[in-house]
């Protein structure tokens, strides 16, 4: 069986700059891949490649054995998000309904209330179906957005910083929901974040991008002082305390995945 996602010798350059080169990645069903790296290292661009929105400069990208393409129902996407205006008229169930209808532009739409209710239930948000998005907390909005991304029952879920501006309790809840989804449905997750700690316990693979280079492996293989020192070209110290990690570097103000 083909991996859910497969990149072979994948290279991406944007604006005359190479973001990563020679990336080989196979993501099997149910795998949780965490993508780390400083601002501008190409994390979101990687998701856009998998969504068929951006072409590779070299190599191939396949989803379930087929070349990536736009509007693939097997791929769910939770884009980066800054919150909704308080006067946004959409309610929770409307947003999920958009996920159901999204792939059927031009065809008659009908209410798939069973699907909408099921997806809201999967993220423990049944009570938010009738609530306007602008009246929800950040964590509630994020859960409804995940329900929307699950509307087509995807085999692969791409999440772009879904923990942004959530407090630790809400972060843990979102991570827990994604973890349950991949365990119960085998949905693979590719999760872009700046913070490793909230997802450390569920991460199978870490892809760490930086300045045209990358390292890929299990958290124990990648989140090591010697490996990150080599990636950053400057002394990096990885300190583990209980189930948390701190990444310390003398490389200036550059952001690290603490
Ligand atoms: N359409 C484009 N044309 C040229 N350059 C682009 C384009 N889109 C993005 N870039 C550049 O590509 C680089 C990677 O952007 P990307 O958004 O993938 O980074 P990122 O790692 O997700 O960053 P962040 O952590 O800030 O979200 C950035 O330097 C960005 O300015």
Overview of this protein structure:
The protein is built from 7 helices and 12 strands. Helix 2 (92-101) packs across helix 3 and helix 2 packs parallel to helix 4 (138-149). The longest helix is centred in the C-terminal third of the chain and has 18 residues, at 168-185. It is of the alpha/beta class. The strands form 3 sheets. Strands 6-7-8-3-9-10 form a 6-stranded mixed β-sheet, sandwiched between helices. A 4-stranded antiparallel β-sheet has the order 2-1-4-5, with helices on one face. Strands 11-12 form a two-stranded antiparallel ribbon. Bound molecules: adenosine-5'-triphosphate (ATP). Adenosine-5'-triphosphate is lined by residues 14-15, 19, 37, 39-45. It comes from Nocardioides plantarum. GO terms for molecular function: ATP binding. It holds the Pfam family ABC_tran.
């Amino acid at each position: 069986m083909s991996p859910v996602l497969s990149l072979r010798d994948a290279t991406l350059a944007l604006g005359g700059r190479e973001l990563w080169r020679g990336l080989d990645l196979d993501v099997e069903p149910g795998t949780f891949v965490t993508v780390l790296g400083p601002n501008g290292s190409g994390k979101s661009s990687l998701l856009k490649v998998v969504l068929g929105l951006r072409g590779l400069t070299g190599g191939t990208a396949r989803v379930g054995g087929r070349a990536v393409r736009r509007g693939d129902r097997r791929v769910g996407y939770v884009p980066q998000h800054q919150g909704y205006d308080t006067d946004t008229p959409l309610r929770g169930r409307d947003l999920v309904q958009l996920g159901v209808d999204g792939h059927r532009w031009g065809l008659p739409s009908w209410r798939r209330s069973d699907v909408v209710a099921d997806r809201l239930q999967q993220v423990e948000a049944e009570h938010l179906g009738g609530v306007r998005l602008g009246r929800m907390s950040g964590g509630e909005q994020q859960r409804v957005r995940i329900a929307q991304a699950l509307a087509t029952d995807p085999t692969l879920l791409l999440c772009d910083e879904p923990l942004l501006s959530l407090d630790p309790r809400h972060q843990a809840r979102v991570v827990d929901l994604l973890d349950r989804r991949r365990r119960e449905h085998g949905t693979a997750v590719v999760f872009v974040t700046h913070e490793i700690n909230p997802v450390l316990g569920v991460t199978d693979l870490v892809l760490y991008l930086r300045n045209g280079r990358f390292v890929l492996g299990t958290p124990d293989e990648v989140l090591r002082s010697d490996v990150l020192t080599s990636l950053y070209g400057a002394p990096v110290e990885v300190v583990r305390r209980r189930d948390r990690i701190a990444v310390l570097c003398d490389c200036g103000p550059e952001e690290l995945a603490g």
